[in-house]
Design a protein that fits this description.
The structure holds two protein chains of two kinds.
Chain A lengths: L4 E3 L2 E4 L5 E6 L6 E8 L3 E9 L2 E5 L6 E5 L5 E5 L8 E8 L8 E2 L3 E5 L1
Chain B lengths: L3 E4 L2 E5 L4 E7 L5 E7 L5 E7 L2 E5 L2 E6 L4 E6 L8 E8 L10 E2 L3 E6 L1
Parallel strand pairs in B: 2-11
Antiparallel strand pairs in B: 1-3, 3-8, 4-5, 4-9, 6-7, 7-8, 9-10, 9-11
Classes of the chains: A mainly beta, B mainly beta.
């Protein structure tokens, strides 16, 4: 079974721009969660999508948004980038969400200049 | 909001030693995860627990729901076990779809 894939792996943007990151879950998994990892804050939950619906959202501003398609692939978007958005963005897929084993993708490292 | 505390933050040990990493959380949960992250960022799920104890090779994870505490043990540690180990809790007792809340991680170095 193919693992979770994320594209792109690396991204450099400038302040004020927007960015879209993509995550393809393991086949059959309906839940995709997104996480931000920074040296200062560690790993933080952004949001979870299940069957194309946002099921839960972490404590992040509205500049962070996402969606899930009918094939369970998910995208997250960050608008009006700030320097503090520089981070490793990870997605994880599972059958049912946080009560199931999470399978993580390799992450997208975003640098905002 | 659940608070997750891990200890120790850093641990350096000699090859072959028995390693214990602890995790405490403040609110009842549906599941607790132990994750391993190597340099470069990739995260691997080691265990998911809702009660009792699980064993996988040289790794053992236990959870005490009443005390809101979990431990990860590594027996016969090896340099390849060097990584960051992260505890994460999910859901609320009785169900729910909350995202994971993470501890800060334990940076483990095993010296040959």
């Amino acid at each position: 079974k193919a693992g979770v894939t994320q594209t792109p792996r690396y991204l450099i943007k400038t302040r004020g721009q927007q960015v879209t990151l993509s995550c393809s879950p393991i086949s059959g998994h309906r839940s995709v969660s997104w996480y931000q990892q920074t040296p200062g804050q560690g790993l933080q939950f952004l949001f979870e999508y299940f069957s194309e619906t946002q099921r839960n959202k972490g404590n992040f501003p509205g500049r962070f948004s996402g969606r899930q398609f009918s094939n369970s692939r998910s995208e997250m978007n960050v608008s009006t980038l700030e320097l503090g958005d520089s981070a490793l963005y990870l997605c994880a897929s599972s059958f049912l969400g946080s009560v199931n084993e999470q399978f993580f993708g390799p992450g997208t490292r975003l640098t905002v200049l | 909001k659940n608070e997750v505390e891990q200890s120790p933050q850093n641990l350096t040990a000699q090859e072959g030693e028995f390693i214990t990493i602890n995790c405490s959380y403040s609110v009842g949960i549906s599941a607790l995860h132990w994750l391993q992250q190597h340099p470069g960022g990739g995260i691997v799920s080691l265990f998911m627990l809702s009660s009792g104890k699980k064993k996988h090779g040289r790794l053992i994870a236990t959870i005490n729901i009443q005390e809101k505490h979990s431990s990860l043990h590594i027996t016969a540690s090896h340099p390849r076990d060097s990584a960051v180990y992260i505890c994460a809790v999910g859901g609320v007792a009785g169900g729910g779809a909350d995202g994971l809340t993470f501890g800060k991680g334990t940076h483990l170095i095993i010296q040959p």
